[in-house]
Amino acid sequence: MRAVGIGAIAVLMAFALRSAALSGPEQEQASPVTASDDLPAKVGRVIIRRPKSRPAITIGTDPKTGEPVTANCSTCHSNRVSDRTTNSADQLDEFHQGMAMAHGGSTCVTCHDAAADSLRLADGRLLPYEDSMQLCGQCHGPQLRDWRHGAHGGMAGYWDLTKGDRIRNHCTVCHDPHAPAIEQVMPAPPPNDRFLNSSAGNQDHD
């Protein structure tokens, strides 16, 4: 009986440690969680819906297939230095025209290293586009904190990973990274609650 109790405690402690790890910075880059010897057999995954690939520019159409022909950023920017002052698409003379840019006065190179086909952190380190949440978190710390706790960004699935997968949204699923503000909407109407109806409330007291 004592052995069973100690074994159960060990399993619970291991599961708690794994859950705590998921709430830290590693969650930004977390791959799906899988079952292991120290966890219950049925363990769901934390799935983060991320950008699928690096951005590319459409430069034409394949005459044979009709498919768009694209080029990576470095195709042009490896020999064309980015203007460090550009913070509006109106200042561009080729490509990217019409792009909405309204992100606190940030310039293109605040976040991008186009010659390396990657993002760039404030300390100069390069960052893959798939991990751009780390870049967002540099300025939007409270939102990242709330995201880690499940209060921001939407979630589907299960809090309890023993019941199934938990699906989280990446920042760019909801926000345009170049103009991240979301248009205000009217809130949904309140639930139809009989206690909010004064006549129904009065009848209950009679």
Q: What's the number of extended β-strand segments?
A: 8
Strand content: 5-15%
Order of the strands making up the biggest sheet:
1-8-7
Q: Between the first and last Cα atoms, what is the distance in angstroms?
A: 57 Å
Mean pLDDT value:
74
Unreliable spans are: 1-37
Would you list the SSEs in sequence order as H and E? HEEEHHEEEHHEEHH
Count of folded domains: 2
Classification by helices and strands: alpha+beta
Query: Helix proportion of residues, in percent?
Result: 25-40%
Radius of gyration: 24 Å
Task: Give the number of helices.
Answer: 7
What does this structure look like?
The protein has helices at 2-22, 73-77, 108-111, 133-139, 141-148, 171-174, 198-205, and strands at 46-49, 57-61, 68-71, 112-113, 118-120, 126-127, 155-157, 166-169. With 206 residues, it is α+β, with helices and mostly antiparallel strands. It folds into 2 domains: 1-50 and 132-181, no CATH class; 52-130, no CATH class. The strands form 3 sheets. It has a 3-stranded mixed β-sheet with strand order 1-8-7. A hairpin with a 4-residue loop joins β4 and β5 (118-120). α4 crosses α5. It starts with a helix and ends with a helix. Mean pLDDT is 74; it is low at 1-37.
What's the short version?
This protein has 206 residues and is an alpha+beta fold. It has helices at 2-22, 73-77, 108-111, 133-139, 141-148, 171-174, 198-205; strands at residues 46-49, 57-61, 68-71, 112-113, 118-120, 126-127, 155-157, 166-169. Helix 4 crosses helix 5 (141-148).
